[in-house]
Amino acid sequence: MSLPPAVILAGGLSTRMGGGNKGLRLLAGETLISRVLGRLRPQCSAVAVNANGDPDQFEDYDVPVISDGFAGFPGPLAGVLAGMEWAAALGADAVVSVSVDTPFLPLDLVHRLCEARGRSGLAVAASADETGELRDHPTCGLWPVAIAGDLRAALESGLHRTGQFAAAYNPGRAVFDSNPFDPFMNLNTPQDLAEAARYL
């Protein structure tokens, strides 16, 4: 099976990080987007960034920049839709999504998502703690482009919860260990950045 393309979701307002472009925040001297690209590029056929505002912010990273098709920063689902439409234009049947603030993504994420896809073709990443309890991370998922119309209709109806949309398709789950820390850890605040630097 050919490798799917991927979209990095970087279209939010980053209010808890103090505003601005979260992907350009530094973690131990390297931007978050650079760290995510370094882990994702070897796993995918192509990578785009979903971002709103000036696309030249990402000119150093040699990636296409695709914006939300909806006004008002409706959240990551709008970025997933933009990624689906970009992937469909490439002739792909699915697209992987990840968040720009997850710099510890597993190096086998895409392979595991493709293996885990459910009957609908959709799969989400999940992490398991020491008790075996699962936590879904639906912004890290594999999305069939065939449901782009459904997603557009859901967004137009006011649905913004990524997990809620994914759950309607009974997704498969690619489960990863959380020891010594969750590989899908989101860095939302300056304190999160400081904690992540300690893990490095």
Automatic annotation (TrEMBL):
Family matches, as Gene3D superfamilies: Spore Coat Polysaccharide Biosynthesis Protein SpsA, Chain A
Record-linked InterPro entries: MobA-like_NTP_Trfase (IPR025877), Molybde_CF_guanTrfase (IPR013482), Nucleotide-diphossugar_trans (IPR029044)
Pfam families on file: NTP_transf_3 (PF12804)
One of the record's GO cellular component terms: cytoplasm
Residues annotated for Mg(2+) binding in this entry: D101
Cofactor(s) named in the record: Mg(2+)
Subcellular location: Cytoplasm
Domain MobA-like NTP transferase: 6-159
Predominant localisation class: cytoplasm
Free-text comment on this protein's domains from its UniProt entry: The N-terminal domain determines nucleotide recognition and specific binding, while the C-terminal domain determines the specific binding to the target protein.
Full protein name: Molybdenum cofactor guanylyltransferase
Species annotation: Paracoccus litorisediminis
Gene: mobA
